[in-house]
What we know:
The chain has a single domain (4-84), classed as YhbY-like (Translation Initiation Factor IF3, 2-Layer Sandwich). Helices cover 38% and strands 21% of the residues. The protein has three helices and four strands, in the order H-E-H-E-H-E-E. The protein has a four-stranded mixed β-sheet with strand order 1-2-4-3, sandwiched between helices.
Amino acid sequence: MLKGKQKRYLRSEAHHLSPIFQVGKGGVNENMIKQIEEALEKRELMKISVLQNCEWDKTEVAEALVEGTGAELVQVIGNTIVLYKESKENKQFTLPR
Length: 97
């Protein structure tokens, strides 16, 4: 689990990022989870936007993504979800203790 200080650090790092994935009408599916997992391995930190036509609530989307990818939920702000998962190969962030 991430601590408050670590979440604040990751939020500041994610601020300038653009959402890479969009969750739309179909909600979250296996294929999307697989692609997000691969992207997290490369980037560690990413934003995902929940479109207006998504039938799922944004917190449901966030929970499904966290459960499916094993990532940490950094924040849900507006219709944007920020996820973090430490990379095995491409470590980019050193979290504060």
